[in-house]
Amino acid sequence: MGAVVGTLTMQTKPRRPSGDKIDDDLEMTMVCHRPEGLEQLEALTNFSKRELQVLYRGFKNECPSGVVNEDTFKQIYSQFFPHGDASTYAHFLFNAFDSAHTGSIKFEDFVTALSILLRGSITEKLQWTFNLYDINRDGYINKEEMTDIVKAIYDMMGKYTYPVLKTDAPKQQVDAFFQKMDKNRDGVVTLDEFILSCQEDENIMRSLQLFENVI
Ligand SMILES: [Ca+2]
Ligand SMILES: [Ca+2]
């Protein structure tokens, strides 16, 4: 569940001091994209209006223009993995956040995903993760996709985190994933298979629950 971990790290990163009222006004003049009304976002997410205001302030600190393109996203995300190369994983993650394929992440996209990852039901969290792994979005996770994801995670963690990795470790992990998830052995994992298999796995369930009550 690397995505979940990454998102959490992003969220708990210490923020720069947000400044006073005058700074806020200055910042607002730089904002190219204004988010939808807070009431609307409050209805769409599991966050209160106050929480959304705090999140928006943090989002603006990182991204004064109000939108994040893929390069910026990669730069921000890579800071959390100084020993590895997070660019490929950040690319997959960016696509998962950018659910409408607009090429940029707006505050609405960010906060909707965060709401699922932190406050969503188990099924919602698993569905979000499935979409992340289903790179070409055809409704199935195939072995190539899972191999790309696993390799991206290894690259991101870097050799200092996993000093004893063997070169065939990604393949073994992908095989183990399919062994567990591909219930009907047709070579692809569907959303139903994914949700069922994850719910059977105590470790995965525990890692999903870790992220509740964080904010
Ligand atoms: Ca696919
Ligand atoms: Ca299958």
Describe this structure in words.
Helices cover 64% and strands 5% of the residues. The protein has 215 residues and is mainly alpha-helical. It has a domain at 121-214: Recoverin, domain 1 (Orthogonal Bundle). α6 crosses α8 (122-133). It starts with a helix and ends in a 6-residue tail after the last helix. One calcium ion (CA) is lined by residues 182-184, 186, 188-190, 193.
Tell me the radius of gyration: 18 Å
Tell me the span between the first and last alpha carbons.
19 Å
Query: Which structural class fits the helix and strand makeup?
Result: mainly alpha
Number of helices: 12
Calculate the mean pLDDT score and round it. 82
Global morphology: globular
The tally of strands reads 4
Instruction: Report the bound ligands by name, code or SMILES.
Output: calcium ion
Unreliable segments of 5+ consecutive residues: 1-31
Major beta sheet, strand line-up: 1-2
Class of the domain at 121-214 in CATH? Answer: Mainly Alpha
Q: Determine the CATH superfamily of the domain at 121-214.
A: EF-hand
Share of β-strand residues? under 5%
Main β-sheet, in a few words? 2 strands, antiparallel
SSE order: HHHHEHHEHHEHHEHH
Organism: Takifugu rubripes (Japanese pufferfish)
Family: Belongs to the recoverin family.
GO cellular component, one term: voltage-gated potassium channel complex
Pfam families: EF-hand_7, EF-hand_8
